[in-house]
Known about the structure:
Layout: H1 2-17, H2 20-25, H3 37-52, H4 73-76, H5 82-89, E1 97-98, E2 102-103, E3 128-134, H6 140-154, E4 159-163, E5 170-174, E6 179-181, E7 189-194, H7 202-213, E8 228-230, E9 277-279, H8 295-304
Parallel strand pairs: 3-4, 3-5, 5-7
Antiparallel strand pairs: 1-2, 6-7, 8-9
Bound molecules: zinc ion.
Amino acid sequence: xxxxxxxxxxxxxxxxxxxxxxxxxxxxxxxxxxxxxxxxxxxxxxxxxxxxxxxxxxxxxxxxxxxxxxxxxxxxxxxxxxxxxxxxxxxxxxxxxxxxxxxxxxxxxxxxxxxxxxxxxxxxxxxxxxxxxxxxxxxxxxxxxxxxxxxxxxxxxxxxxxxxxxxxxxxxxxxxxxxxxxxxxxxxxxxxxxxxxxxxxxxxxxxxxxxxxxxxxxxxxxxxxxxxxxxxxxxxxxxxxxxxxxxxxxxxxxxxxxxxxxxxxxxxxxxxxxxxxxxxxxxxxxxxxxxxxxxxxxxxxxxxxxxxxx
Length: 310
Ligand SMILES: [Zn+2]
């Protein structure tokens, strides 16, 4: 219980540190999850302009300078990692993101985490039920991908994503501009966006669903400097805050290069070949995988939610 509580607390504290921009803009942030979108427009617009400083007005450009991400998915699938896809898909979003794909919470609610309320509650049967609704905009194939991702949690942990009946707290899965999620349980309806054009992949869905459980990005761990070098000279300056370390409780698990929560080496890069994250000591260690939950991701879910069973 205690480690869980402290982890979530630290996650939220870390978030609030990462959000000075939003804090200044979002003065009436008492809504749920999608608060302050209007207020955040100008923040995002600034960022978009900054990104276009590298000489390309095409908002769909991906970090490798390729322009065919949406046009040629099959071919790209073999060498595009999850984080690249997420960041590309979010490039045109009007939502203010933390580290690329986490919706900024109403951070004043972080205090609730002292009482564990940003975790999802466990049922008497030992399972953690997370109600969801898949928006009507999704077709059969898309539902299949999303539910397949949910199945990966169910088959390996005590987490169960269940269709909502009348529960108060639930995840509303929508296709808006980008792939993003809130962090942990926010209370009431919380939005998870999987844009139909850029986010319908099992690995991306698992990444966003893992944010729903309360997990942050691996490369912001408190001890990350022992395992990766952050190349600030290659980072788009206005996005540098995405690389701030957080004082995380790492559940006594090792740094996991293979985590589905680890960003790729060119996240927020200023240009092709200008890597922002370099593994230490072996720079060729793969990071930013796209297949789904790693074995440590699974172990951490079980630890955070004290799963006694699958
Ligand atoms: Zn993320």
